[in-house]
Amino acid sequence: MARHQSKEQKETVERVMHEYKHGELRIRGNGPKVKNSKQAIAIALHEAGASSQENPKKNRETLRKTKTKERRGKTAKARTGAKKTARHRARGGDGKTRAELYEEAKRRHIPGRSRMSKEQLEHALAR
User: Fold this and answer.
1) What are the residue ranges spanned by the domains of the chain?
2) Which pTM does this prediction carry?
3) Who is most buried in 5, 13, 38, 80, counting CB within 10 A?
């Protein structure tokens, strides 16, 4: 590990280790997930341009490429942040769940509400 890291290098190492901790870090971007902490550290140092295995010129170039990728949002952290959870994908038009629609139907005293599907509840409440 480099003795003196720049602010940019520290931020990159921090981001990569965060991805590892949350199970988002992958080998070569789209390969299998990294399961070994030592491998995650090696990837972090390489991406930060702080690797002792590379010459200083190559390290600077690697850091520049990594920072460009971060600005474009092409890191694992940016990719997974954009995905919606299953709960949010399942929500229909105005974003209410069946339970929320049922409570509204109960409040309005709509008959047969317990046997209605989400779509039927939406239709009944729209009247």
Assistant:
1) 7-90, 95-126
2) 0.51
3) 13
